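User: Just a sanity check before I run the rest of the batch. Below are the structure tokens for the first item. I only need the designed sequence back.
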């Protein structure tokens, strides 16, 4: 079996190894692959691994030897599942590898906003200018609101693995937790309250979506729902970029209708220069790194190995196109 990795760099920039692929046959790992390079690079491949490189109907139709597509992520919208299924190609994903890392990133954004650590560290850095603290006549110096999380309300949209982990961390901070979920109230852990979307947006001090991207969740966070939020509230998005209407969020931030946003995902990645969030005030953007701790990427590689090995033995696991 020959395996081709189309965009190896994002998952493994050099601190992990692809050598385990040798036990399954020949392989080649390309750091990056342009759309025009997909077909020629995969013509003799039995298995293709991709993170964000698209394998659409055209690409799948042009690869007669292809029998397996392994998506190096949880979301698998980069693959045309109908086209793969029509050809009998098995498609797998990597579930639950980054749950703790993403939940940690949610609170990294929250604490960055509520405690302004980066702001104060910059103000007091060792530079040619005296720090504002050194020039203060008081023993302390602060010029931003500082917010305690205990007693605040966290609204979580979606209560899968990541949503439930974020909820557990919120409870540990002493927060009240509302969740929008299909699960009945009696199935939720103690301290978690089922709520409607309207209640989530109107009552929460912090709103954090943790839902997959579907037709129903596209722009779920839109102008009308942002208008329900408190002007002191914070929006966090580490789920999928298109879950949030970026122009509506930028407008809310510019109009002072929202305190701040912490965003790790955007509608288009990398963003175009005219992305409205790039110039929005109090919008703190990280470049899609919530999933990318070494620990999470190591788990991703381990599950990828298990997926491909199981397929080679005739018993595929984590199949998304049954």
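Assistant: Here's the designed sequence for the first item:
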């Amino acid at each position: 079996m020959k395996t081709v990795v189309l965009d190896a760099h994002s998952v493994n920039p050099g601190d992990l190894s692809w050598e385990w692929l040798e036990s399954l046959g020949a392989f080649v790992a390309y750091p990056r692959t342009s759309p025009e390079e997909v077909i020629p690079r995969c013509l003799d491949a039995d298995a293709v691994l991709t993170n964000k490189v698209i394998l659409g109907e055209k690409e799948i139709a042009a690869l007669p030897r292809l029998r397996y597509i392994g998506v190096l992520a949880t979301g698998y919208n980069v693959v045309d599942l109908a086209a793969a299924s029509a050809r009998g190609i098995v498609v797998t994903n990597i579930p639950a590898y980054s749950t703790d890392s993403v939940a940690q990133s949610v609170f990294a954004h929250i604490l960055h906003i509520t405690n302004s650590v980066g702001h104060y560290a910059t103000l007091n850095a060792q530079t040619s200018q005296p720090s504002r603290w050194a020039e203060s006549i008081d023993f302390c110096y602060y010029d931003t609101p500082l917010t305690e999380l205990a007693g605040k309300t966290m609204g979580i949209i979606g209560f899968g693995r990541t949503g439930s982990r974020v909820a557990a961390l919120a409870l540990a901070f002493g927060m009240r937790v509302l969740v929008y979920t299909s699960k009945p109230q009696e199935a939720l852990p103690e301290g978690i309250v089922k709520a409607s979307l309207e209640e989530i947006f109107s009552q929460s001090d912090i709103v954090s979506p943790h839902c997959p991207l579907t037709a129903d969740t596209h722009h779920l966070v839109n102008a009308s729902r942002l208008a329900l939020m408190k002007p002191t509230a914070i929006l966090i998005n580490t789920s999928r970029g298109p879950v949030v209407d970026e122009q509506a969020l930028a407008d809310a931030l510019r109009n002072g209708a929202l305190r701040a946003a912490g965003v790790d995902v955007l509608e288009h990645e990398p963003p175009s220069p005219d992305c409205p969030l790039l110039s929005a005030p109090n919008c703190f953007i990280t470049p899609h790194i919530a999933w990318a701790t070494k620990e999470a990427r190591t788990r991703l590689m381990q599950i990828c190995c298990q997926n491909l090995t199981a397929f080679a033995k005739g018993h595929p696991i984590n199949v998304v196109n049954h």
